[in-house]
Amino acid sequence: MKRSLTQLDIQENGIDDKSGGWLSCFPENFTSLEVLNFANLNTDVNFDALEKLVSRCKSLKVLKVNKSVSLENLQRLLVCAPRLTELGTGSFMPELTGRQYAELETAFNQCKNLNTLSGLWEATALYLPVLYPICSNLTFLNLSYTFLQSLELASLLRQCPRLKRLWVLDTVGDKGLEAVGSNCPLLEELRVFPADPFDEEIIHGVTEAGLVAVSYGCRRLHYVLYFCRQMTNAAVATIVQNCPDFTHFRLCIMNPGQPDYLTNEPMDEAFGAVVRTCTKLQRLSVSGLLTDLTFKYIGQYAKNLETLSVAFAGSSDRGMQCVLEGCTKLRKLEIRDCPFGNVALLSGLEKYESMRSLWMSACNVTMNGCRLLAREMPRLNVEVMKEDGSDDTQADKVYVYRSVAGPRRDAPPCVLTLSGL
Amino acid sequence: MEGGVAYENDLNLKETELRLGLPGTGSTIEKGVSGARNNKRPLPETREEGGANGKPDAQHDDQENAPAPKAQIVGWPPIRSYRKNSLQPKKAEAEAAAGMYVKVSMDGAPYLRKIDLTVYKGYPELLRALENMFKLTIGEYSEREGYKGSEYAPTYEDKDGDWMLVGDVPWEMFLSSCKKLRIIKGSEAIGLGCGA
User: Fold this and answer.
1) CA of B30, closest CA in chain A: separation in Å?
2) How far apart are CA A416 and CA A382, in angstroms?
């Protein structure tokens, strides 16, 4: 165990911990931890070990626990670590006695340095007021695991005037987003996740109106990730007119290939407006019904674009070609379910060496096309993953990236590395 | 540029000879995407973990006209797996909260009981609960011999109306097919143990 380990962050890994005893592995004299994040761990942890660890690590600034840590136990942790700057709570299920609630309030009151708050699993409006004492200093609030309605969010946001980053579920609805626009003038980043992404019968969630409302109130917005079920070209044009400084624009209209629901036209003009207006755009994710025109616009205007994600879009090879030709700073291109084939793939021969990677899946690329690419560009790794039962000639999933180390030797059997030979 | 193509209901891809699959293929991809645009639904399929890049499932011709429920395209919408896993339990919890009550009858008992199967994590817990409820011993289950050495055996009626021995199938399968329970005793139970 590294004596001076300062950060343990297993946030993004889907770990299935079998024993839960890992916290006890930190030795008694280990006190250097500054960051401890196990928010996405699936299993229970030894709370005693956790409490002891938190108590003795006086430099701990970031603590993000998982769902297994109850509110009652959270209070004990907060009392040990009032100097935290970032907190991820465990379960926020409202199960406290009156006295316990008061103790929790007091504990939060002591945390004068908190600027980031997340977790809040199973939180309901009932207990949100316990957070009010720390809200005024919050710059990042992650409510993406909390099923809040619009009014509940509004009450909370009224306490958070300094918010710069907000992550929510679409349960808050357009009304909730209006509250964002009204209460958070300093907002720079908004992410709205779908609470029920796979249920098409749902008639709620957020629409174009919500994001438009945010754009009127939050002129500094430069990062958006928005999952919605309807959108219009006009709305997007308004949004970028209000907020021209977007660096990251990720719009996910959840029904693939869906047109502007008012005009029934493709969403080409929406993304045309985005790339024309937002000159600083670095990352773009497109969705909805899109023709090659979208890609013509992207190639023409998105000169600072580094990452592009495309799904269920485009009409022909020309679309992808426009992007490869026009986006001089392109580094990462990921494409799925688009009608781009070998002509498009091979038009980017020289381009791929200046890029970090290309991913194409469920497109029209063939094994022969990939072999040709590999042959022409020996400094690229061209990897193909085939689907069960697919045609021999189809290259179902293609991953292309430059490498000075040659083909990888640790690929699983499903990955075919094509060489030029 | 696509000036000439109409966008009323669908892109009429066949007419314009724009195909989303290789020529001659079974239009697996084509149906996936055009299906979505036509509001026709591809086959349901299981969700896949991981990032944004997967492929729609293969579809069959006869599904084109069926008003099938909206399918889940693999890896779409592009939500990270730890987030998906975090949200799903909400629905499952709501369903579980509703409970799954089934009747339990025992030969010779004056009235039936009811238990909520969802509160048990597996067969051992269920059997202990039954033993407690009816003040009897059910004994050890073995695949070969059923509940041998016991005066009682737990059985259940499945979706097909057949009476089955509790314990043969995986727990989840049992939960989804059990309609009612019956504890049988005496000679009937022994008969079951002899591979009848």
Assistant:
1) 9
2) 8
CB atoms within 10 A of CB B49: 13
Chain centroid to CA A153? 20
- Residue A372: strand pairing partners: none
Q: Hey, what amino acid is at A42?
A: N
CB contact under 8 A, B55 and A265: no
For chain B, percent helix, then strand, then coil, each to nearest 5? Answer: 35, 15, 55
**Cβ(A5)–Cβ(A32) under 8 Å?**
yes
Q: Is the pLDDT of residue B30 over 80?
A: no
B81 close to A (CB below 8 A): yes
- Quickly list DSSP for B42-60: --------SSS---PPP--
How far lies A34's CA from each of A3, A9, A137, B76, in Å? Answer: 13, 10, 20, 36
User: CA distances (Å), A369 to each of A134, A343, A349, in order?
Assistant: 57, 8, 11
Note whether A130 and A109 are within 8 A (CB).
Answer: no
Q: Does A72 touch chain B (CB under 8 A)?
A: no
pLDDT digit string, tens, across residues A321-349: 999 999 999 999 999 999 999 999 999 99
Structure tokens at A149: 């309605």
Contact between B70 and B42 under an 8 Å Cβ cutoff? The reply is: no
The answer to whether B54 and B81 have CB atoms below 8 angstroms apart is no
pTM for the predicted model, two decimal places: 0.73
Per residue in A43-78, pLDDT tens? 888 999 999 999 999 999 999 999 999 999 999 999
Identify the three-state secondary structure at position A170.
Answer: helix
What is this model's ipTM? 0.85
How many angstroms separate the CA atoms of B57 and B74, rounded? 7
Helix or strand run (H / E) with residue A40: none
Tokens read off for A210: 């919500």
Residues A304-343 as b or e (16 or more Cβ within 10 Å = b): bbbbbbbbbbbbbbbbbbbbbebbeebebbbbbbbbbbbe
Integer Cα distance of B189 and B147 in angstroms: 8
Could you give the angle at the alpha carbon of A19 between the alpha carbons of A15 and A21, nearest 5°? 105
Q: Give the end-to-end CA distance of chain A in Å, rounded to a whole number.
A: 46
Task: For chain A, say whether B194 makes contact (Cβ under 8 Å).
Answer: no
Give the closest residue to A181 by CA, choosing from A206, A144, A146, A147.
Answer: A206
Determine whether the interchain pair B1/A254 forms a contact, defined as Cβ–Cβ distance below 8 Å.
Answer: no
Sign of the C-alpha dihedral, residues B17, B20, B23, B27? negative
Asked whether the beta carbons of A150 and A181 are under 8 A apart, the reply is no
Q: Which residues of A touch B58 (CB under 8 A)?
A: 389
Tell me: the pLDDT tens digits for A4-16? 788 888 765 555 5
